[in-house]
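Record type: monomer structure entry
Structure origin: computed from sequence
Chain ID: A
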Amino acid sequence: MIKKKNDVARIESGGRNLDDLFMGGLPKGSVVVVGGPPGAGKTIFTQQICFHNASATQRVLYFNTLSESTAKTLRYLNQFAFFDAKKLDEGIQFIDLGVILRTKGLEEASKLIMEHVKKVKPTIVVIDSFRVFDDLAKSREELRKFGYELAVSLMAWEATTFLLGEYGAQEVHTNPLFSIVDGLVMITQREQSGEQQRFIQIVKMRGTEHSRDEHSFVITSNGVEVFAPRVTIQREDRGPGTTRCKTGISKLDELLGEGIPRGSSLLIAGVAGTGKTVLLLEFLYRGAQAGEKGIIFSFEETEERLRATAHGLGWDLDQEIKRGMVEIVFIPQPNIMVEAHLLMMRERVEAMKARRVSVDSVSVFLHKVKDPQIDREKVFQLASIIQNSQAVGFFATDIPYGANQLSRFGVEETVVDGVIVLSSTEEGLERQRYIEVYKLRNTAHLKGRHNMVVGSGGITIFPRYSLEAELLAAPAPLEASRRLPTGVPGLDELFGGGLLERSVTLVSGSAGIGKSTLALQFIAEGVKRKDPGLYIALEEGPAQILRTAEGLGLPLQPAVDKGLVELLYLPRERVRANQLLTILDDKIRAQKTVRLVLDSVSQIVKAGEVSEDLRQLLHALVVRFKSLGVTSLFTLESSSMYSTDTLTERGFSPITDNILMLRYQRLPGELRPTLAVVKTRGSSHDWGAYYFSIAKGGIRIGERASDDAASAPTHTKTRPGRRKGKRKLRGG
């Protein structure tokens, strides 16, 4: 509400937001022309002012020149809430000038008006319609003289005077009456945005500040209701916000950094089906659970459908609505009145003291508006409501299919404080959703697109990298003094005493050679030492893994029952590679994992080269495991059973600290598995290749492998001049 100025005495109109256009009310004693076509609302506008101010001490004289009976006038007025029959005669008096005008002319009508004024000493005088005097005047000079004398006489009595007439905008500069009066208010009606609307504009108001814009209004049972968001919704300068909002949505807060500054509005942009409504609804639901009230203005989905959506996602939204923490306001698309509903939204937000506001969607809300500048203005006013209430607003907008833009109208993103883009792409036989924080003012947010899933419980986001710095920072150096035993008899000696704490070991081996067995021994050794272990299987389910461990005599079942070991099955068909980091990060933190097995990395990779995105993902996995103090072991299937020339065909060797190669050696009448440590970072190791066997208890290291086997492939022979057991190997 605009504060009243105390420069001049004013009278209140009694109309909703009407006084704000006059910056506090109409100046007392002024003479105001109220012009406009028939049926625009001039009479209701004026009568509402009269009844609002009429009393025994503030008398009103209402002169009617159209010979309309008082009884008919009162029947019409009786439908409005501002009408008060008790004010008739004592406060407001209706007088018919029609007969005297037709029989005796202007001069006698003027005398009759002034006789009543002298007798009653009114506060307000109305002549409806004054246009009759234009028709009866013999010349423009006579009309000017009549109008001037009447205006001066009424001003002498300090009466606020309203002269109503069917004047058009084209007469503003030609009608002599307009140069005499203090004020000119034009009331019109026309089609705009596909519907008939009424408008009011203060063209002139002498000696006082006022709004010069044209504002829409409606006539209801309460009378004239002006919306005027340009005047009533003014952005308050609150300075930089110090508090921030955490959405409570899975991983979204990680993308948003320190949180959304209070008073901010974010555009939630995306084509149909990308999850905008779910995001807006969950934003309110999580807020309600955290004790913050929220309201959603829906122009597409009914309250029943929104409740059903929430129920389908497993949320008890009905309870939050019952507690008064969430409100749903549905406005059907055909009923949208932009300025009226802007004002309604402001009032509902203020009344509820909402801290979270969702609008679904601004595209539908503004669909009738064809001017981009007006679109921009209305979004600004919507954002001002959010800023003034220090809430956080999520505004959905539909992006046209195939359009290279961030919003429906192409201007909304320039007004709001942040933009979150939701998208979907067809990958294989299914469509994947993604979320991107495109911008957020005054906040260091995580960049890039991140996989998003909508399912039971709501939205789940899988950040590409939990911290962007992980791609830029080098992994922490390994501590040579702290090692973890592998659990494989004889293997620790080959590694120089065991695996360095927080190191990453790649076990490259042929199919069926024993990679998973070695990984199980690594986890089982941790059980002996009370080290929490996490075994991620991308091929076999937990039941099969436990059965294999039992067959090897490795006691994993009791450790699983106690929670010391967790077996996590993540098939590629169910979990995409770009979701791994988030899933594993959560598991490691929850379990405080010390030992981790990823069996096998081969399942993450599709046929062909490793993409740059996958290389970055694996790098992020390694860095994150090390930062969390995890010692990890990755298994990787090699396409070669015998060759020792190539370690990892897919180029994984640079990201690991240790590489353990398992290959078959062809001997007369048999194949024998061999094992060799071909790389360790920050530690010495044995360069020899050793035979090993698998029995109860798992893998056991045997004697050094022979290099001169008669049937060994030529590409595995030791190069001339090199010491036995020290082959030069080419990494992948």
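Annotation 1: The two ends are 71 Å apart (CA to CA).
Annotation 2: The first strand starts at residue 10 and ends at 11.
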